[in-house]
UniProtKB/TrEMBL annotation:
Protein name in the entry: AAA family ATPase
Domain of life according to the entry: Bacteria
Gene3D superfamilies linked: P-loop containing nucleotide triphosphate hydrolases
InterPro entries (alphabetical): Cellulose_synthase_operon_BcsQ (IPR017746), DNA_Partitioning_ATPase (IPR050678), P-loop_NTPase (IPR027417)
Amino acid sequence: MPLICFASPKGGVGKTTLAANVADALRRSGQRVLALDLDPQNALRLHFGLPLQDNEGFAHELARRPDWRNAVRETPSGVILLPHGAVDIIGALDLATALEREPELLAAPLRAILADPDLMVVADMPPGASRALTLVAPHAAMIVAVLLADAGSAALVPEIESGRFLGAGSMTALFAGRLRVALNQLEPESRLSAAAAESVARRFGPRLLGAIRRDVAVAEALASQRLLLDLAPGSLAAQDLAALVRGIAAARPAMPEIAAAGWAGR
């Protein structure tokens, strides 16, 4: 089933929050969804209500060749979760080295997960170029690059247009064709934010899936470890999330069941 990756040339753009809430929105459309956390920050779990002290996961154990099925968590939202697991900076570097040496540590379980024809996978990738992203990109139906709607976005546009943040290699240009863009924390009343959004829209055209307005409901949802559509289904950000999911459906004609599903308000 299709794999949708959420990535970004830099951290701090709300990538994980967006991945979690898109996974939830897709699940509400009737999909079976697995949320896969490959970001060493191990934050995806927080959106699905896992306790802060729960540090177990899948990706941080890859060097030991764990069975991914043993790490699966059923969440109240109905989204299946594979948390990353807690890891310090040394552990993250060791994992990257292990994947460099033996790519099958990640590639093999990913193929097994994607072999389920009824499962949609939403993966939260590490920010910037990473070995994990290089290995996952060939399997992805879509790679959603998340940008903030601010002046700094303009400096990152070349990284996204070229696909350089996907990693080095001759296949980078091919994977770049699967790239789409989502803007986060848009402030329409701010001239600077609006101008940045217009600039990104001009550069990417139909590859821009949508924009999420800055909304306190998003922060409140994270603080309470709840998903946006549970806490504030009528919020501005929830409306934007619906439009973003429709944009994903429109960009993926191979997923007509998403395009046909009217999840908003469920």
